[in-house]
Each structure stands twice: as C-alpha cells, then as structure tokens.
Amino acid sequence: MSWRCGGIFDVASREKVLAELEVRMAAADFWNNQTAARGIIDQANAQRAVLNPFKVLQSGLDDNRTLLELAESEPDEAQRQSTWDMIAQDLGRLETAFRKLEIESLFDGRLDRHNAFLSLHAGAGGTEACDWTEMLYRMYRRYCEEHGFEVSLLDILPGEEAGLKNVTFAVTGDCAYGYLSAERGVHRLVRISPFDTNKRRHTSFASLDVVAELDDDAEVEIKDDDLRVDTYRSGGAGGQHVNKTDSAVRLTHLPTGIVVACQTERSQHANRTRALKLLRARLYEWTQDQKRREMEKFYGEKGEIAWGRQIRSYVLQPYTMAKDHRTDVEIGNVMGVLEGHLDPFIEAYLKFKRSSATVESKPSSGILE
Prior knowledge:
Alpha-Beta Plaits, about 375 residues, Methane Monooxygenase Hydroxylase, Chain G, domain 1, 2 domains, alpha+beta, single chain
C-alpha cells in the first residue's frame, strides 16, 4: 500500500505545511488581520482533516504488521490461517479507507469540505430535456445515498408534459461540495425518445449548478433593500400544510438578478431561512466569478445549455457509452452510471484539475500570503 500516491498524497509535505501554519498562528500579531487569520485557520484545519485520518490508517497498518509477525510464529496451522484471513480482511478495509482519503487529499479549496446546493435545469430538447433533468436528479440522489450524503429538496418545477424543468436540492455531508463540484456543467443525453411515436433518436441537454453552503460568519452582506420577497402556494403532492398556505418563498436579489426559492418546508419562515442560505451561497460564487472577471456565473465553462457545451455525454443509442469530455474517461455501462456510479468520473476530474493547477502554478509552500 503506497502512502505517497505519486505526489498527490505527500504526508511529509503536508506535515511541513501544517507546522508552518501553526507557527504563524502562534504569532503575537496573528489576529491583527482577522480575515487573513481565518484563512490560515481554515488551511490548518484542512491539513489536519487529511493528516489525522492518515494517522489512524498508519496505526492500523502497524497493528497488522504485528499480527503478521505473531501469525508467522504460530505453530497451530488453523490458528495461523485464521489470523492471516483476519489480516487480509482488515487490509482490504484499510485500502478502501485509503482510496477515499487519497481523493479527499485533493480537496484544498476553502469550501471543498462544505455542504452543497445543487440545481438542475432543463436545456435544449423540450419534453425530452425535462425528462432528462429528472433522470439526472435521480442519478445524483443515488450517488448521494451510496456515499452517505443526505439530500433535501428545496424547490422543484415539473415539466409541462413530463419530467422537471428545474429542481434545487441541498446535499449534506463531509466534502459534499468537493465531490459534487466536479459535476458542474452541461450533461448531454442521446437516446431513442420514449415520447416520439416514430422512435427517432433525440439529443437532450440539462445543466447542473453546484455552490457551497457558507458558514454563518462568511462575509456575504445582503441588505433588506436589495431583496424582493414573494410568497406563493407550494407545489407538490399536497398535505396538511402544503398547497393550502402561501408558505413557499422566492427571493430575488435586485442588484444581481439572482433568484432562489424554497417550497418544501412546512412554514414560510423555514422556507425563507433555507432560501436565504442558498442566496448567500450563490452570491458568494457570483462574487468570486466577478473577482476572476469571468462571466460564466455558476456554470464553470458550460455557458449555454446546448450542443458543444457539454462536459459529459450519455449515449443509449446506437451504442451505450458515457464519456467525460474533460478527462476522456469512458464507461460502457451507462445504465450503471445513471444509477449513481459516478466515482470514476469524479476521481478522474479531481486528479485532472489538480495536475492542471500544479502545471500552471509556481512552486510554493502551500500557504496563502
């Protein structure tokens, strides 16, 4: 079991960075600039989040080495074989934990370990695109279930005939944003349309936006005068409160034109609170895009939700293939992908993104100045 992973997972380097950060945190003038201080603390916590689980893995590996030595000196063959089987089983568990840790070691962004808000929007393709949006919603729910993430629906708009025009949901769990931000972009589906009586092949598009949930102390100011608040009756299957009171809330941020909504909570107050959290997250992302002078706003590099902008294609006809156009990863079992088996795509993109950043950036200590 290699702990270095080709330079991606370098424990010695991370320990050095953490030691340098702790020296800066111990300085007498550390809190003179509170914004910079919080940034350094965030970096230190990110390093500890990787190193502490690694120490647990290292301890488990040492324990198995000791067991192996005992097994080799065990005269009873049945007992020796039983110990070997136990070691093999535990090493398998450690290998699985290490692979997860290897991927999470790529999460060095300030918000990578936060919860996430995801929004799917139907693009070109009419009813087909709405159906495709619903398929993607199911795919991401399955992915989240497999990885222990909790999914909470915030807002949903059904299509006129089938599927969904758009849907927004929250994903709660460690590193949810780090994983799912790799999926931001336009997704393309090619299949024989179930809505076409002539059984012709159709191409549909849907986009995924991903923003990180912010901490309460994040510096995002929202003035009351900049907000327009609309309330309306919730959609959905109905119930004691749903569809019977104007509990759904839509917030419009007038300076930027950003609109968010929440309709799934029982009370108007709860919907407003969740919508405000989503608005703060999107405003932060919008602000970062402005600072980078990129006008793509939430879309990464996807731009228009149409042909030529997709990050991934899912082909069901005339052959079956899911291909990521950023990393060239291809999977023939496209139905498995639609069941939420996205790890090969996400892992490949995270490594691709890290390697691209390493090539483009100058060597540094890893500490923000």
